[in-house]
């Protein structure tokens, strides 16, 4: 049953509108960081403070990045069904909506999901090869290798299932879906966009390094130390300068999760 926007409590209406503004603005980061071409890629964010079954905001499918604004963002429930909140009826949500919805249903700590076809990360995905943790930046952001998820067709739960299954075995916020491209997650959409930018950067750097030889993986104890510092010490921590990229909960160590 579509949701009538006029029946939304004021707080939920405000939260939906805030998410639409934020997700629209974050979509501009994808072309700005050269992570997408044409209409490829998408960003979503869970609507904060939603009682009941939950909602998220995602871009409409196949619309030029130049034409995306808050008014064109689509609101969906956690089954991926479009919610009628006043967004024009002809705007259908992203073709990856079912994957985003699956992640939100199965990873309650996650508040943002991003998908791109960024060149270097997608090249690793094309080979179904994990990116080895040979850079401190990888240890900082991803806590280890960036894993590969299974090949899956677009349109149903298959991609989402592959993302969740793969991310459940790692600290990484990025997964390279085989022969498709990277999906990243974060506590909110901004953190997931950051992970997408970092994923492409390390994919490019490790690729370049491999043209020169075989880079060595960082020792596990050093990876753990770097990850701990970056996640818990790096950046600003005052109430007015809190880093929005920090995870809500400290993820378990690799040893605890495997
Ligand atoms: O992976 C795919 C298609 O292969 C999609 O991610 C498109 O690249 C973007 O689709 P929309 O979000 O515009 O539907």
TrEMBL record:
Keywords: Metal-binding, Zinc
Highest taxon listed in the record's lineage: Bacteria
Cofactor(s) for this UniProt protein: Zn(2+)
Coiled-coil annotated spans: none
Reaction equations catalysed: L-ribulose 5-phosphate = D-xylulose 5-phosphate
Compositional bias annotation for Basic and acidic residues: 243-258
Pfam hit, one: Aldolase_II
Entry keyword Metal-binding: yes
Keyword DNA damage annotated: no
Sequence ranges assigned to domain Class II aldolase/adducin N-terminal in this UniProt record: 21-207
NCBIfam families reported in the protein's UniProt record: PRK06557.1 (NF005123)
Family: Belongs to the aldolase class II family. AraD/FucA subfamily.
Name of protein: L-ribulose-5-phosphate 4-epimerase
């Amino acid at each position: 049953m579509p949701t009538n926007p006029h029946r939304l409590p004021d707080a939920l209406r405000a939260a939906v509108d805030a998410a639409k503004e934020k997700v629209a603005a974050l979509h501009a980061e994808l072309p700005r960081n050269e992570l997408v071409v044409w209409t490829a890629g998408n960003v979503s964010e869970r609507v904060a403070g939603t009682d009941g079954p939950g909602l998220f905001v995602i871009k409409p499918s196949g619309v030029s990045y130049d034409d995306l604004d808050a008014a064109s963002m689509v609101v969906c429930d956690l089954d991926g069904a479009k919610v009628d909140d006043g967004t024009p009826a002809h705007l259908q949500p992203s073709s990856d909506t079912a994957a985003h919805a699956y992640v939100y249903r199965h990873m309650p700590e996650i508040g943002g999901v991003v998908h791109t076809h960024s060149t270097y990360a997608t090249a690793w995905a094309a080979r179904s090869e994990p990116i080895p943790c040979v850079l401190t930046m990888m240890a900082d952001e991803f806590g280890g290798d960036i894993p590969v998820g299974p090949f899956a067709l677009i349109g149903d739960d298959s991609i989402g299932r592959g993302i969740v299954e793969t991310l459940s075995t790692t600290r990484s916020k990025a997964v390279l879906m085989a022969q498709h491209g990277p999906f990243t997650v974060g506590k909110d959409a901004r953190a997931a966009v950051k992970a997408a930018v970092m994923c492409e950067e390390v994919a490019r750097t490790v690729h370049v390094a491999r043209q020169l030889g075989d880079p060595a993986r960082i020792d596990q104890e050093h990876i753990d130390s770097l990850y701990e510092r970056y996640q818990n010490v790096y950046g600003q921590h005052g109430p007015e300068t809190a880093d929005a990229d920090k995870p809500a909960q400290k993820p378990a160590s690799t040893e605890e999760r495997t």
